[in-house]
C-alpha cells in the first residue's frame, strides 16, 4: 500500500473553513466587510476565481490581473488563504463568439449557446489550448503569493459533447481500446441489427437515432467522455506544476445524487498522492426517504473511497436551500453543524460551502450562503460562526484517518452499464441500491468505504456488492474471500462483461465463486413483495436460482428454484448470494455478522472514529435522534473542553468530539 498522504493542505493550520468567495460580484467597500466577518467567523480558506475568466481575460489577447491581485492581496493581509481556481469551467461570451466551434453540441445535434456556464466542448482544440494557457499564466503569477494554499482546477467536471471534434476523438479513443474496426465491431456486437461498421467515419458519438442505441456504444462513450475530462484536468494540473511545484492541486468532484458523471476511480492516480488532494461537493437532496444524516454520511464515505482512505476536503455544501432545487426546502436549526461534523468525522479536513456571501444577482441569487441576504444578524450566520469556533477547537484532528472495516463495492462502469436501455427492469439501478445498503450499515453503526471491486480489499472484514452488474471475472473477489473475507453479493450481479455482453451461463462472472446457477430473471413489479421461507421478504427483482455448491439459507416460498439466499464457505472466508433485493437488510446484516463497534448504540447516534498513526484517536458523536443517548467513551470533549464519561448522555441534536483516553 502506498504511504498515506495525511497532510493534504499543509499551509492551512488546523481544519479548513470557508467557501467559494466571489468578490468580483461586489463593490470594493463590501470586501472589507467580508474580511471582517470572515475573521469573526473563523474562516481560514476561500475558493476564489472559480468563475472569473471574463475579468482576467476580457478579450482575445487581453489580460488584466488587477482585480485578482487585489483579491489575493486582501486575503493575505486578512489572514485568509486561497484555494485559487483556474476559472476554466466557464469561458466568457467573447470566447464562444470568437470560437463558436468550442460550444458543446447535445445529442439532438443542437449547438448550445452561451448565456449560462460550462459552455465548452472538452474536445475542441482551441478550448483545450486556452485552459492550459490560463492555468500557466495563473500559476506563473501566483505561485509565490503568500495567500496561496492550493490550486483548484476547473469546477465539477461533467460536460460531454457529440460534435465533430468529439466524433474524431471518440474514434481515436476506440482505436486505442479495441485495436481496429474488427475489434470495435466485436466489442459492440454490431452483427445485431446490421450495425457493422466498414469504415471509421461511420462511427459516431451517441447522437439521437431512430431506436434503442447500441449499449456498447453508450458505455464506451461514457468512458471516453470521462477520460477526456480527466485529460483536461491533467493538462491544467501539469501546467500549474511547472510553475508552482509542491503546491496541492485539486478539483471538486460532485458526489451529490447519482454521482456517475465521470469514472472518478480512473482519476485516482492523478488526484491522490503527493501534492494532490481529493475534494468533493455534496448537496443534500430533499425528499430523501433515507434521510439527510445517512445521505451526508454516504457522500463522505464515497469521497473517502475516492481519496483511497486519505484525508480529503468537503469543498462545497449548502448552509440551507440550494437554488437549483425546485421547491423550497430548508435545513433545520443545527443541521449545518451536524452535517459538517459528520463530513469531518468521516475524513474531511474541514467544511467548506458554496458560497461565502449570497449573490444579489445571477442564476443562484436564491442559493443559501454562509452570509445570507439576511446579513450577519441571522440564524445561519450564527451557526456559521459556531461551526468556525468548533473547527478551530478540532485543529488537532487534522491529518487523522478513518479505519473502516467494511466496504461497499462501487464501479462506475457497472453503474453506467446497468443504466443502458433495454434492461429487464428499469428499477434495477445501482445508485439507490448502494444508498440503501450504505444506510442499513450506517444504522448499525458500521462505517463503510465505497471502493472499486478491483482494488485491494484485504483490510475489510466484510465486503458488500449490492449490485455489481458488470464484472469481467471474479479473481480479486475470490482472493479476498479465500484469505478470510466475507463477501455478500446482491442479485443481478456478474451479468455482463466490460463490453456489456451477457456472460454465458448466469451469473457468468460470479456463478463459480457463489456456487450457484441462475436460471431465469423474475422482475418484481413496484409495490409487490416476494416471501422467503425464513420470514424475510424481497422486492424489485428475483431469480430462479439453483445451489450447485452452496448452502441454501432461505428459499422463496412460491418459486421453483432451489433457493433465495445462499452461503458458501471458501478458503478462510465465505460468500453470500441473494437472489432478490432483501427488503429489510438488518436481519441479513446480523446473519452475516457485521456489527458496529458500539452495538448498543441507538440508531441515529452517529459514532465515527478518526485516528492518528501515533495512536491519538477522536470519537465523533452526533445525536441525530429526538432522545438522549449514551456515548460509551472516556476522554475529553474537544468542543466543550470538559471530561467525557461513558455515562454522559448526548442530548438530542448535540455533538461531541471526544479525544479518547
Ligand atoms: C455546484 C457548483 C457551484 C454552485 C453550486 C450550487 O456545486 O460548483 O458553483 O453552482 O453547485 O449548489
Amino acid at each position: 500500500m502506498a504511504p498515506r498522504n495525511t497532510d493534504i493542505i499543509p499551509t492551512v493550520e488546523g481544519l479548513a473553513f470557508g467557501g467559494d468567495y466571489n468578490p468580483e460580484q461586489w463593490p470594493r467597500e463590501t470586501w472589507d466587510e467580508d474580511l471582517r466577518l470572515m475573521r469573526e467567523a473563523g474562516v481560514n480558506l476561500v475558493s476564489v476565481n472559480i468563475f472569473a475568466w471574463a475579468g482576467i481575460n476580457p478579450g482575445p489577447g487581453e489580460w488584466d490581473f488587477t482585480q485578482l491581485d487585489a483579491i489575493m492581496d486582501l486575503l493575505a493581509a486578512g489572514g485568509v488563504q486561497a484555494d485559487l481556481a483556474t476559472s476554466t469551467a466557464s469561458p466568457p461570451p467573447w470566447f464562444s463568439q470568437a470560437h463558436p466551434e468550442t460550444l458543446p453540441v447535445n445529442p439532438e445535434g443542437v449547438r448550445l449557446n452561451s448565456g449560462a456556464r460550462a459552455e465548452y466542448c472538452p474536445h475542441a482544440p482551441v478550448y483545450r489550448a486556452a485552459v492550459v494557457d490560463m492555468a500557466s499564466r495563473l500559476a506563473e503569477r501566483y505561485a509565490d503569493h503568500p495567500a496561496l494554499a492550493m490550486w483548484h482546477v476547473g469546477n465539477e467536471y461533467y460536460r460531454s459533447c457529440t460534435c465533430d471534434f468529439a466524433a474524431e476523438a471518440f474514434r481515436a479513443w476506440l482505436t486505442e481500446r479495441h485495436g481496429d474496426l474488427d475489434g470495435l465491431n466485436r466489442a459492440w456486437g454490431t452483427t445485431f441489427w446490421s450495425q457493422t461498421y466498414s469504415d471509421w467515419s461511420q462511427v459516431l458519438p451517441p447522437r439521437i437515432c431512430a431506436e434503442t442505441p447500441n449499449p456498447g456504444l453508450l458505455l464506451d462513450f461514457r468512458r471516453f467522455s470521462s477520460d477526456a475530462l480527466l485529460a483536461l484536468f491533467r493538462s491544467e494540473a501539469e501546467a500549474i506544476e511547472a510553475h508552482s511545484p509542491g503546491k496541492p492541486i485539486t478539483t471538486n468532484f460532485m458526489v451529490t445524487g447519482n454521482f456517475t458523471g465521470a469514472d472518478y476511480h480512473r482519476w485516482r492516480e492523478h488526484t491522490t498522492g503527493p501534492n494532490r488532494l481529493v475534494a468533493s461537493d455534496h448537496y443534500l437532496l430533499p425528499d430523501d426517504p433515507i434521510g439527510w444524516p445517512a445521505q451526508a454520511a454516504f457522500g463522505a464515505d464515497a469521497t473517502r473511497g475516492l481519496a483511497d482512505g486519505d484525508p480529503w476536503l468537503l469543498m462545497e455544501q449548502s448552509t440551507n436551500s440550494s437554488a437549483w432545487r425546485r421547491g423550497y426546502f430548508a435545513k433545520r436549526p443545527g443541521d449545518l453543524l451536524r452535517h459538517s461534523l459528520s463530513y469531518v468525522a468521516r475524513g474531511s479536513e474541514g467544511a467548506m460551502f458554496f458560497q461565502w456571501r449570497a449573490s444579489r444577482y445571477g442564476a443562484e441569487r436564491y442559493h443559501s450562503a454562509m452570509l445570507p441576504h439576511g446579513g450577519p444578524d441571522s440564524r445561519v450566520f450564527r451557526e456559521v460562526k459556531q461551526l468556525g469556533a468548533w473547527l478551530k477547537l478540532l485543529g488537532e484532528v487534522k491529518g487523522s484517518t478513518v479505519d473502516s472495516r467494511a466496504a461497499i463495492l462501487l464501479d462506475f462502469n457497472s453503474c453506467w452499464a446497468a443504466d443502458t436501455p433495454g434492461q429487464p427492469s428499469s428499477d434495477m439501478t445501482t445508485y439507490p441500491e448502494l444508498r440503501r445498503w450504505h444506510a442499513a450499515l450506517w444504522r448499525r453503526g458500521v462505517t463503510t468505504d465505497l471502493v472499486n471491486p478491483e482494488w485491494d480489499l484485504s483490510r475489510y472484514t466484510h465486503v458488500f456488492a449490492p449490485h455489481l452488474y458488470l464484472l469481467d471475472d471474479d479473481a480479486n473477489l475470490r482472493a479476498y474471500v479465500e484469505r478470510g473475507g466475507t463477501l455478500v453479493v446482491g442479485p443481478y450481479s456478474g451479468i455482463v462483461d466490460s463490453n456489456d455482453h451477457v456472460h454465458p451461463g448466469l451469473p457468468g462472472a460470479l456463478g463459480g465463486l457463489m456456487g450457484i446457477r441462475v436460471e431465469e430473471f423474475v422482475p418484481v413489479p413496484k409495490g409487490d413483495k416476494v416471501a422467503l421461507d425464513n420470514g424475510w421478504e424481497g422486492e424489485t427483482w428475483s431469480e430462479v436460482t439453483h445451489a450447485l455448491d452452496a448452502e441454501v439459507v432461505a428459499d422463496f416460498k412460491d418459486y421453483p428454484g432451489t433457493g433465495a439466499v445462499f452461503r458458501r464457505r471458501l478458503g478462510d472466508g465465505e460468500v453470500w448470494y441473494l437472489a432478490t433485493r432483501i427488503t429489510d437488510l438488518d436481519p441479513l446484516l446480523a446473519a452475516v455478522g457485521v456489527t458496529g463497534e458500539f452495538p448498543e448504540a441507538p440508531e441515529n447516534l452517529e459514532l465515527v472514529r478518526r485516528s492518528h498513526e501515533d495512536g491519538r484517536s477522536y470519537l465523533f458523536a452526533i445525536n441525530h435522534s429526538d432522545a438522549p443517548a449514551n456515548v460509551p467513551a472516556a476522554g475529553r470533549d474537544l468542543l466543550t473542553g470538559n471530561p467525557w464519561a461513558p455515562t454522559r448522555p448526548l442530548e438530542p441534536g448535540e455533538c461531541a468530539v471526544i479525544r479518547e483516553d
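The longest strand covers residues 537-547. The first helix runs from residue 28 to 41.
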